[in-house]
Amino acid sequence: MARRPLIAGNWKMHGGRADLDKLRMIREAARRQICETTDVVVCPPATLLAHAFEALEPTVAVGGQDCHFAASGPYTGSISAPMLADSGARYVILGHSERRSGCGEDDALVARKVAAAWSAGLVAIVCVGETEAEHAAGRTLAVLREELTGSLPSGATGDNTVIAYEPIWAIGAGRTPTPDEIEKIHHAMREHLSHRIGEPAARAVRLLYGGSVKPENAGEILAIRNVDGALVGGASLNAEDFIAICRSVPEPAAAPPRGGLE
Ligand code: PGA
Fold this sequence. Notes:
By secondary structure, this protein is an alpha/beta fold.
């Protein structure tokens, strides 16, 4: 089954109403060209969700950057998955390394959040990735297996789940793994999912690469087998760069074969 590529922008803790014009630019570019072949989502800070919905939908989707595992309750400062859905969001990023390390989120908590997102009808973009030390020690695949096992509750499908491989050492660092490394890692993730949820479901789950994706390297990264899109941080804050990345998705006919497990 062909997977529709997905380019996701993660604005992190950046942006205000003065930046809404960027979203309108992205929507116009997507409407003219990109959305025929590619899904696009922008995940702004929660304060901008409603404005982003007005500026982007229905051409470009809106997503949250986190949610609580409960639907409502005494959790001052938190936002639930149903609240994100109510604001118009269709996606939510969960388990980003900045939340795992900065907010103490472990796999079990991420799994509860993923289940909450599914219950609210959101697509969970579940992030996994190794530290620099784990990379240097050759532990990347072991770390990813552990994170995928712990962070994904049973019931993942191509409709409710996207996995983003984000090596922590590449985020905001201006460096990336080699195309060969990315290909091996994405292949291994596809195989892992296949064992876990069965091959047809695993084939349908989109696997994004994230970590220093820029207009200059997007074409090469997005052409790698089993890379079904990108999670873009810094470069998504610049509308022209983000649009250029969206346009770097290979044409379906020109793309290398995707999806098959060897
Ligand atoms: P970056 O961030 O593109 O700025 O490296 C990616 C991310 O953290 O999702």
